[in-house]
């Protein structure tokens, strides 16, 4: 299994010989609701679009996960799997192969990788977006991805999982509370899923952020403090912090393959 962090919540994951582009924001600015004064994210330069993509995987329909300018720049013939909300976004952009995956449902990519949707971030009063469990059909190597640190106790039944991509920082807003659950959520996931590797997401590598909202955000935690907490708890999980654009081959010990519902 190989991973490349493309900054923020964007990842290129190679598993089972399949190249999966996750929550890509690679070109253009990141703005919510066309209000740059409130929040604006910028790359110092556009990131190159990865080639030979087998699937685009979207956890949410919001702009920082289903980023319209990036999706417009990618080949609309690439298959897409996403939450129902994300599926509406890409369908509106003209993508031709779109699968909306509800919680508990599984998609099989080219008979090589299964992708199971699990409950993820809570957006608004009622909408629950997606997290995902990816499994290599041949080897059983597995990965969990959810970008806001939201998960339910039912995720325990999916363990063990080899790699967890999750936030390690807590982000809170006054009167709103946590919008990203980092340290506590990551510790909980490690306890439940027993991963070999933890990869931080939702952090800023090269991107810069501006706007009124940034001054209100309170940030707590770090990859180093999470590693220290894991060691104090007796966990052998390694917290890796990849450099943006650096391909990382994950050295995983083999485990007994876990069957998946197809």
UniProtKB/TrEMBL annotation:
It holds the Pfam family Lactamase_B_3. InterPro entries: RibonucZ/Hydroxyglut_hydro. GO terms for molecular function: hydrolase activity. This is Zn-dependent hydrolase. Keywords: Hydrolase. It comes from the Bacteria.
């Amino acid at each position: 299994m190989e991973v490349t962090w493309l900054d923020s919540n964007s990842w290129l994951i190679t598993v089972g010989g399949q190249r999966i582009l996750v929550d890509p924001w690679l070109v253009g600015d990141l703005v919510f609701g066309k209000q740059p004064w409130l929040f604006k994210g910028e790359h110092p330069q556009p990131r190159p679009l990865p080639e030979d993509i087998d699937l685009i995987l979207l956890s949410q329909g919001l702009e920082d996960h289903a980023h319209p300018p990036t999706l417009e720049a990618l080949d609309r013939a690439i298959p897409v799997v996403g939450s129902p909300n994300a599926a509406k976004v890409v369908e509106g952009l003209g993508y031709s192969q779109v699968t909306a995956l509800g919680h508990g449902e599984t998609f099989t990519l080219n008979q090589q990788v299964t992708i199971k949707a699990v409950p993820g971030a809570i957006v608004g009063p009622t909408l629950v977006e997606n997290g995902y469990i990816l499994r290599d059909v041949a080897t059983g190597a597995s990965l969990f991805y959810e970008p806001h640190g939201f998960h339910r106790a039912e995720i325990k039944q999916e363990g063990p999982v080899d790699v967890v991509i999750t936030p390690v920082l807590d982000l809170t807003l006054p009167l709103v509370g946590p919008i990203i659950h980092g340290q506590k959520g990551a510790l909980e996931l490690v306890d439940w899923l027993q991963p070999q590797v933890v990869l931080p997401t939702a952090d800023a590598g090269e991107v810069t952020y501006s706007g009124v909202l940034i001054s209100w955000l309170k940030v707590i935690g770090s990859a180093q403090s999470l590693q220290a907490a894991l060691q104090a708890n007796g966990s052998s999980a390694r917290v890796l912090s990849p450099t943006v654009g650096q391909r990382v081959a994950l050295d995983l010990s083999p485990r007994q393959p876990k069957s998946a519902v197809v």
